[in-house]
Amino acid sequence: MWEIIKTSVPEILIAGLKYTIPIAIISFILGIIIASITALIRMSTPKGNPLKKGFWHFLKAFFTFYVWLFRSTPLLVQLFIVFYGLPSIGIQLGAWTAGILTFSLNTGAYASETIRASILAVPQDQWEAAYSIGLPYHKVLSRVIFPQAIRIAIPPLSNSFIGLVKDTSLASSITLVEMFMVSQEIASHNYQPMLMYSIVAIIYAIFCSLLSLLQLYLEKRFEVK
């Protein structure tokens, strides 16, 4: 048993460092960008001529539908649709691209609600004070609102990232050779599924525990005084 552990753990760790962690980081960064755009558009009030208002209402409806769709369907189903379903309509994506795309869109849908709630949690007088000194909308957001909203959003967004690290195990279903798939392959050769799945579960637990410590540090670092 110890020989199996000694030989399999490095393989699983390499897969984690090569695929699991990069997939999670890239998807989370892209997801936060998507989430920020989604939250701001859904919170905005269109102004200007009727044509501009109509286009803005369309954007709000589109992003509202996007959030509803990805929050209402299982992540595994989304992965299957993107990787196995899209080729049937002529859109062929590699496993890495399909995984990143799906995880990013899924993360963006959930994180957009977190960001929207964090922005709304900033007191209204902060907006009014910023406008009173003549700051335009984009500077009010970047210099006044976002810095305060980030502090509020750190705990839930950190939880989302930790959840995303665990969700990357689903990438094995679209042939991405991440940690879980490596453990499956090793188990198919040594016929020790219980041992291999326990090992990969422990490695996931270690990764997530380290991220939880980072979360605690960030919460203290950005704690509202």
TrEMBL record:
Pfam families, per this entry?
BPD_transp_1
Instruction: Tell me where the transmembrane regions lie.
Output: 20-41, 195-218
Q: Which UniProt keywords apply?
A: Amino-acid transport, Cell membrane, Membrane, Transmembrane, Transmembrane helix, Transport
Predominant location: membrane
Query: What is the membrane topology here?
Result: Multi-pass membrane protein
GO cellular component terms? ATP-binding cassette (ABC) transporter complex
Q: Which GO terms describe its molecular function?
A: L-cystine transmembrane transporter activity
**ABC transmembrane type-1 domain boundaries:** 17-212
User: Which cellular compartments is it found in?
Assistant: Cell membrane
InterPro entries registered for this protein in UniProt: AA_ABC_transptr_permease_3TM, ArtM/GltK/GlnP/TcyL/YhdX-like, MetI-like, MetI-like_sf
Q: Which PANTHER family match?
A: L-CYSTINE TRANSPORT SYSTEM PERMEASE PROTEIN TCYL, MEMBRANE COMPONENT OF AMINO ACID ABC TRANSPORTER
Cross-referenced NCBIfam families, in alphabetical order? HEQRo_perm_3TM
Family of this protein = Belongs to the binding-protein-dependent transport system permease family.
Protein name as annotated: Amino acid ABC transporter permease
